[in-house]
Structures are given as structure tokens and as C-alpha cells.
Write a structure and sequence with these properties.
Layout (H helix, E strand, L loop, with lengths): L1 H25 L9 H16 L3 H14 L5 H17 L3 H14 L6 H13 L3 H11 L6 H29 L1
């Protein structure tokens, strides 16, 4: 019925809102200019921790890199937000990872990479927001992915289309 669809939409919105609140809580206040060398160090540590599968520690390191980074160091801030998004995704914190990828994109939409869009699409798919996932996967295709990544992206678009149709059918049955 319509109530269950509205509840589902409300639950998704509540999940995204909760992620935004948590994300804001964990942001580190930037006092003054920030120290570039320290931020680079935190970013590198976050990358190493991410590669070791230590996601919670990586998240903390990326947040310290972001919080201490001078405002004009856009490239480093983008990389740190992307790293944070990856660590959040790996931790199963998909709504928060979407927000981190959005934060990276918002810093400079002109330099968004296919990989960032692919990762954000994967996060959307994980929370069953398949139409948003399809949009991001589609945009990723024209943003510098290699041949294997393009093929994977195209497979993910196909999967999300199927899942979106199934989701629509389930919702239509629920409405009846």
C-alpha cells in the first residue's frame, strides 16, 4: 500500500539524514589556515590504513587530513574525501560514503573522476537507490575509466536497471 512506500521513502531519507548528522559530528574544525604537511601526512596514513583494511582508523586519518588542510588545497581535500568515502563504503556505512563522495565532487565538479562517480554509484546501489546509481555509473563512463573499468561499469548499469525494475514491481504489488 501507499503507506509502506512512504515508509520506505521516509526510512531512506531518515538514513541519509542520520548519516549527514554523523558526518557533521565527525568533521574536524579547521582552525586558521591548516598545515599542509600535516594534512599530507594524515592523508598518506589514511591511504595506508585503507590498504590494510583498517577502515575506522583510515576514516579518522582522512578526517584529520580534511580538517587540517588549508582551504585552497582543493586537490588534497578531494583526495581525502574520496579516501574517506572508500573507507566508509568498506565499513558498510553506505549513506555516509555517498555524502563523502558528494563532498569531494562539490569541491570542484569539473575534476570529478570516473572512479569517484563509480564509487558513489556503488554506494547508491548498496542502499537500493538504483536510479541514482545508474546516473552515476553512466556519468562515470565518460570520465577516464580504463577498458576493464568501463566494462564493469556497463555491467553494473545493467544490474541496476534490472534491480530497479524489480524494485518497481515490488512497490507496485505493495500498493495494490
Amino acid at each position: 500500500d501507499e503507506d509502506s512506500i512512504e515508509e520506505s521513502i521516509d526510512a531512506t531519507e531518515a538514513l541519509l539524514n542520520a548519516a549527514a548528522v554523523e558526518s557533521n559530528k565527525s568533521e574536524i574544525v579547521n582552525h586558521g589556515r591548516g598545515d599542509l604537511e600535516d594534512s599530507i601526512g594524515w592523508y598518506n596514513m589514511g591511504t595506508n590504513l585503507l590498504n590494510e583494511g583498517k577502515n575506522d582508523e583510515a576514516i579518522s586519518s582522512f578526517e584529520k587530513a580534511i580538517g587540517g588542510c588549508p582551504k585552497n588545497e582543493i586537490e588534497l581535500r578531494i583526495k581525502a574525501q574520496n579516501g574517506r568515502g572508500n573507507a566508509l563504503y568498506n565499513s558498510g556505512r553506505y549513506p555516509e560514503s555517498v555524502l563523502a563522495y558528494h563532498a569531494a565532487i562539490d569541491l570542484d565538479p569539473d575534476v570529478v573522476t570516473g572512479r569517484t562517480l563509480f564509487n558513489m554509484a556503488s554506494s547508491y546501489a548498496a542502499v537500493e537507490m538504483f536510479d541514482d546509481a545508474i546516473k552515476c555509473f553512466t556519468q562515470a563512463l565518460d570520465r577516464g575509466l580504463n577498458k576493464n573499468e568501463v566494462e564493469l561499469c556497463e555491467r553494473q548499469i545493467s544490474r541496476c536497471r534490472i534491480l530497479s525494475r524489480e524494485q518497481s514491481k515490488r512497490q507496485a504489488r505493495t500498493v495494490r
